[in-house]
Please model this.
Amino acid sequence: MSFSRRSLLRMTGFGSSLAAATLAARGASARQAGPYGTLEHAGHAMGPVGRVSTESFDPGVFLRTWNFSDLPSEKRQRYYRETRRADGSLLREYQLFAVDREVEIAPGIFFPAWTFNGQVPGPTLRATEGDRVRVTFVNQGSHPHTIHFHGWHPPEMDGSLPEHQVMPGGQFVYEFDADPFGLHLYHCHAVPLKRHIHKGLYGAFIVDPKTPRPPADELVMLMNGFDTNFDADNEVYAVNTVGHHFMHDPIKVEVGALVRIYLINVTEFDLVNSLHLHGMFFDVFRTGTSLTSSERTDTLMLCQGERAVLETRFRYPGRFMFHAHQSEFAELGWMGAFEATGARRDT
Ligand SMILES: [Cu+2]
Model:
């Protein structure tokens, strides 16, 4: 099934006469007296009709999951193990596999993805600075793939050169120390690179400082896009893959509590992506490599591969939108909401 950007825009109801007619039928139209008489204009629907199944992947669960923490302990041990080392740091061992899989990115729209462990984005890996990370990668996909980690490591662990490609059926063990602390990224680095990344082979790699950041409600958000008709242009944009998911299912937060967002841009085909949060400001820690904020803003732009840690506290209860400040991305799915509860705090 192929969709153009225009047909997706129509589906999502922006400028849609169908959506307008539906709302008018529900009595949502408004009469306005203007210089040319009385005009009738219905409110527009926001987002597509219907919901994406969260059975195999739930963007809301992904948001607060790292090191397979969403799995029951027995199942988790298949993919993640940690062992204390003599110096007090941890050896963290991961099992990652590449597999071809269709993922639903908007109601009824399935994208033929290449995935790490069957999901897009891949599982979030999280270590503390100085830990040893060992990733056993098995390629069960139909194309050569690699895992290229951002961070300090020797060249043979880089997963980027032609000789680093892991052929279908093959495997490779990546091993390096988690360094430096910050918000990093991992992705396939086989060629053609933009195809391999865009197909879904990417994930977050968080390295915590030895003295941890203050406790917070932590959220992992990867800004991504999907080219459903292979014209090197995205038809669906999202945070964590499913367009408009957090409009239907707002992220629950507490008024006054510290909220920390690990924000990564892995959007292919567009030069930049951005996050804009309504009604408030956040502190920015670019790449998360410093504990001193460089900026307080309500809109942050990131190039592909760039990341930032954002911190804020909600002052008011209620619903706050967040979305790309490129309006087109927002309308094509990259739009969501927070739902804050608790008593209002004016500072
Ligand atoms: Cu690949």
Observations:
- The first helix runs from residue 5 to 11.
- Residues 13-29 have pLDDT under 50 and may be disordered.
- The two ends are 50 Å apart (CA to CA).
- Residues 143, 145, 188, 190, 196, 201 surround copper (II) ion (CB under 6 Å).
